[in-house]
TrEMBL record, chains A, B:
<keyword id="KW-0539">Nucleus</keyword>
<dbReference type="Pfam" id="PF13344">
    <property type="entry name" value="Hydrolase_6"/>
</dbReference>
<dbReference type="GO" id="GO:0006796">
    <property type="term" value="P:phosphate-containing compound metabolic process"/>
</dbReference>
<comment type="function">
    <text>Phosphatase that hydrolyzes imidodiphosphate, 3-phosphohistidine and 6-phospholysine. Has broad substrate specificity and can also hydrolyze inorganic diphosphate, but with lower efficiency.</text>
</comment>
<comment type="similarity">
    <text>Belongs to the HAD-like hydrolase superfamily.</text>
</comment>
<keyword id="KW-0479">Metal-binding</keyword>
<dbReference type="Pfam" id="PF13242">
    <property type="entry name" value="Hydrolase_like"/>
</dbReference>
<dbReference type="InterPro" id="IPR006357">
    <property type="entry name" value="HAD-SF_hydro_IIA"/>
</dbReference>
<dbReference type="GO" id="GO:0046872">
    <property type="term" value="F:metal ion binding"/>
</dbReference>
<dbReference type="GO" id="GO:0016607">
    <property type="term" value="C:nuclear speck"/>
</dbReference>
<keyword id="KW-0378">Hydrolase</keyword>
<dbReference type="InterPro" id="IPR036412">
    <property type="entry name" value="HAD-like_sf"/>
</dbReference>
<dbReference type="GO" id="GO:0004427">
    <property type="term" value="F:inorganic diphosphate phosphatase activity"/>
</dbReference>
<keyword id="KW-0963">Cytoplasm</keyword>
<dbReference type="InterPro" id="IPR006355">
    <property type="entry name" value="LHPP/HDHD2"/>
</dbReference>
<dbReference type="GO" id="GO:0005829">
    <property type="term" value="C:cytosol"/>
</dbReference>
<keyword id="KW-0460">Magnesium</keyword>
Length: 271, 271
């Protein structure tokens, strides 16, 4: 339609959520591609549009996460993915912050290029067994020793499920340090504005030139719109019909899946 | 004065804070008696008034804490002290709650008489090194598995100081479980109404028949008044002159120390 054509004027890049948009997680292979999504990614890349993947995953390094998606058939590279650790590194560099890390051992390599001497902030991630009393106290002492304590949290999840039961997620321990220091953490990850801004900066695209495509009406659609982007909701993944009547958030469009979203966008752009 | 005499009509029991009222903590002996306080306790006991000690201490068992006070010269017995663990046990019994304990090993004996099979609540204390990821997850799973999760926290402190540095206190970990389960903990200890009620029940005295004497305008004086008791503020311990102009809380009287408080009370009662 004419409306859609106007909406898409000046679009230069797409930002894709991964889980629930590219694939559904679980099972022996670690997940199943959502029909049409593998081809949709190829079409975006062929179109000349810039592309960025934007995920809240923090249980694995980007490397391992991307390896899984490649095995499932996706044309995706590590340096195309914005994950909380990546975004945190960008923030740390921009603000000359030297983190004390309270994260999973597997995530530490993500911070290889970051100066960690004489820390002036704390970065907390899903540290799992590294959430010992001693490690929490160490992070706490770094914070309470700072004139203006800065706590950066890689997500704000409450808990998640593993094969051996429910586990406390990073958000629960973020609250430990928030309360002890009487501060508010800066949460990195969707729906934080800085997280989307980080993805856009990696693409070299302005918010009004980008479209977010996700299955989460609040964290994907609402978050992207807050940042000045347009956003489409797909009817896959965690989507539920009531999301289309969400009291606060209205998507710029509702599509059955990523394949339809890409077809609509490319058709309008090539008019 | 006539006013004071009327205020004290029907008084049958006194509730004393310990730290900052009986003694100041610290130093090699673990503390120093506040001048006149040892005698003041003796006078109360000789007067026939009922007496209860009410503390927020949770770093030691009542036994060890009371041993220290006895060494300092106080006539005090373990069964005269209301501490958070004692109060929690009373609550557990009253409500048929069977706790999963996340507390310091030294505190476990306080719960010897409590049924802990098939837990239907969690009691969290200053567990120190017992605050491992595994132990937190265990407590979390008990809570999240309950239809109506009940979390009882022995205090809500943020942190405290030990010789080897600052340590996270129970309140910080209370927040971990509160956030993970989206619940509010029931905090035992001053200024909680249930805590004072527990002390009163141990004495067999009604709120309007009791006077609280403390050095904390909010937790001692305000808490006791909320519970229907009268309350005096002593000018010892953590007292600061600005406490007498507190915007929310007005004590029923201000006295220089416990000795003066006891003299005033006994003089009026014997009129």
């Amino acid at each position: 339609t004419a409306d859609r054509g106007q909406q898409l004027a000046g679009i230069q890049g797409l930002v894709l959520d991964i889980s629930g948009v590219l694939y559904d997680s679980g099972g022996e292979a670690g997940g199943l591609p959502i029909p049409g999504s593998i081809d949709a990614v190829k079409k975006i890349k062929a179109s000349g549009l810039r592309l960025r993947f934007c995920t809240n995953e923090t249980q694995a390094t980007r490397d391992k996460f991307v390896e899984k998606l490649q095995r499932l058939g996706f044309d995706i590279a590590v340096n195309e993915v914005t994950a909380p650790a990546t975004a945190a590194c960008r923030i740390l560099k921009e603000r000359n912050l030297r983190p004390h890390l309270l994260v999973h051992d597997d995530l530490v390599p993500e911070f290889d290029q970051i100066d960690k001497a004489n820390p002036n902030c704390v970065v907390i991630g899903d540290a799992a067994d590294n959430f010992s009393y001693q490690n929490l106290n160490e992070a706490f002492r770094v914070l309470i020793g700072l004139e203006k304590p800065i706590l950066i949290s890689l997500g704000s999840g409450r808990y998640y499920k593993e094969t051996d039961g429910l586990k406390l997620d990073v958000g629960a321990y973020m609250k430990t340090l928030e309360y002890a220091c009487d501060i508010q953490a800066e949460v990195v990850g969707k729906p934080a504005k800085t997280f989307f801004q980080s993805a856009l900066a990696e693409m070299g695209v302005e918010p009004q030139q980008a479209i977010m495509i996700g299955d989460d009406i609040v964290n994907d659609v609402g978050g992207a719109q807050q940042c000045g982007m347009k956003a489409l909701l797909v009817r896959t993944g965690k989507y539920r019909p009531c999301d289309e009547q969400h009291p606060q958030v209205k998507a710029d469009g509702y599509v059955d899946n990523l394949a339809e979203a890409v077809d609509v966008i490319l058709k309008q752009l090539h008019k």
